[in-house]
Amino acid sequence: METALAMPDLGPALAEVILAVGAMALLMFGVFRGDGSTRSVNIGAVLLLIGAGIAVVSQPDDRILTFGGAFVMDGFAKVMKLLVLLGSATAIIMAAGFMVRENMARFEFPVLIVLATLGMLMMVSANSLIALYMGLELQSLALYVVASFNRDSTRSTEAGLKYFVLGALASGMLLYGASLIYGFSGTTSFDTLSALLSEGGISTGLIFGLVFLLAGLAFKVSAVPFHMWTPDVYEGAPTPVTAFFAAAPKIAAMALFLRVMYGAFAHAATEWQQIVVFISIGSMVLGAFAAIGQNNIKRMMAYSSIGHMGFALVGLAAGTPEGVKGVVIYLTIYLIMNAGVFCCILAMRHKEGPVEEISDLAGLSQNQPVLAIVFAILLFSLAGIPPLAGFFGKFYVFLAAIEAGLYALSIIGVLASVVGAYYYLRIIRVMFFDEPAQKFETPLAGELRAILAISCLFTLLFIAYPAPVLSFAEGAATSLVGTTETAEAAPAEVH
């Protein structure tokens, strides 16, 4: 007897469809027109991401399942997808001028960014282990190529190779964990897993599967002890690629982290909470101490990002709606601060080419006082100095941890934040108090000035009007955790 195959509802996945079809169209356009089409493809890629953002905003806040329940669209997915799309669009804009100056302008770059973003959106909406892996690998395959995009640079080639080898190892662990989970539960669906765990508890086999799954996810957010790829890849990849790595993929991976822990394994919080606490402490401590001895600013930012992901994991470890809210607020603020910091790094350019050493920033306050002041503001914010935006990001995740009774984690986090402030203050000291070094090229490109201005204003004025970010985060938390609690009572329609 033949079974009729029903066409899945593509409405909830409209943004993904736009990016998939658009990426293929841009690729064909670039192939036929050659590298002379790079500017047009850049513009087309940004317009695609904007179109995908409009498609995301147009979705209802209600929880909708499609593709046999493997794909979910809800309020949490909307917020996280918008952050991912913003990070990707910003990276393409930041990269445009840099790629031309460094003779790396090729149409493949924006296409790869769009394909990676497609994978990230799939990760955010994944509601099964299979969908999770599909999104993760689509993102990773594009990022491997992007990391080694500067074919003439040994460092860039090495960065891509290291990322590929270690990424393959992480994917293997994640797949093994997913296989164990499927073997001991008989399902790949997050909703079914949640229902099974609520009824019968968690078996030893599922715990082992969960540990391997967490290891794979921890690699994607560059959390300790799976951070080893981060410093080398950040240093070796072209600077706009590093800026991209530090933002959008981290947000997508953290969203997936939240989806898995608060969705599939919501009823096993006591088992995974201890693991997340360990990962969080390790990331915060390593990020604080390892960055102190770095002389390359991109390498320092790598350890900084490890520390920041540790702070975000504090909110995840809380296991409460307030924890989800804290993570979303933290990631939003981190995304905008990060864009501004990397604009400043892109401005570190002498006549001989880009400069990445911290010592070369000496006397920047005399050469370019406005840039130095803006850079200092952003660094103070990254350090969590009040009343800047970065302080509030840490405040909300620590508040969630304290309300959940994780006092030791909060204390360690605050101490790590104090230690971490040292290497940010070191850069500020070099800029304002060391003897002037070689002058930087001026002026900054218009698009970099715009991003820098937005980032600086957001950092300064967040305290005056935090309502939009808090509202978005509250909605995302309610959507995710509320879904977990009510999934059985009121299942959504599956197309």
Plain-language structure description:
About 75% of the residues lie in helices and about 0% in strands. It is mostly helical and about 500 residues long. The protein has one domain. It has a two-stranded antiparallel sheet. The longest helix has about 30 residues. The chain starts with 13 loop residues before the first helix and ends in a 9-residue tail after the last helix.
The residue fraction in helices comes out at over 70%
**Counting H and I runs of at least 4 residues, what is the number of helices?**
20
Described by strand count, sense and barrel closure, the largest sheet is: 2 strands, antiparallel
N→C terminal distance = 22 Å
Across the major sheet, the strand order is: 1-2
- How many separate domains make up the residues? 1
Order of helices and strands: HHEEHHHHHHHHHHHHEEHHHHHH
Question: What is the molecular shape?
Answer: globular
- Arithmetic mean pLDDT: 86
Secondary structure: number of strands? 4
Radius of gyration: 22 Å
What amount of the residues lies in strands? under 5%
Secondary structure class reads mainly alpha
Low-confidence stretches: 483-495
Give a quick rundown of the structure.
By secondary structure, this protein is mainly α. The protein is 73% helix and 2% strand.
